[in-house]
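Predict both folds.
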Amino acid sequence: MTTSLVVPAFLLLHADEKTLDRWSRIGEALSPVGVFFSGVAFVGIAVTLFLQGRELRNQREELTIAREEQQRSSAAARSHYANCTPA
């Protein structure tokens, strides 16, 4: 972490105008690459949110089915227990 802060600061303090201008032009030339990857990241996040929403809907449906099955099983067990108990 320290190296990532110290080295650029050292280079910046010891750079002349020509070097800074060259690095500035390189940075400007590479800025479309940054824009592209930002767009790709945004699309990736949007797709991830969509897939998570779909997965949550599927999970809710499965939980509803499991709850209904549990209720049916409990009702069947209660009726079986009620029929088996001696009066």
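Second protein follows, with its predicted structure tokens after the sequence.
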Amino acid sequence: MVANFFPVAVSDTKLSSFHSKQVSETTKIITEFLKWAEREKGLLLCEPYKPQYDWFIPILYRTKDLAAEFCSLQDSKAYSSA
């Protein structure tokens, strides 16, 4: 007799809530890291202002939004490779 370790049917709502919890935790970790890097190491994320002069300015995005965008990009890559 074979043991059934996995449920026969898993509802989409359970999967989506699990996935959203993972994304939320990942977003929190990334955001906390970026805040720590700025506070403790003086590092800022920057973007080119005048590339011909190599001028850079701090980004105007919230770190939480950037982390969420990163997670959604990683999610779409995971689904496209499956």
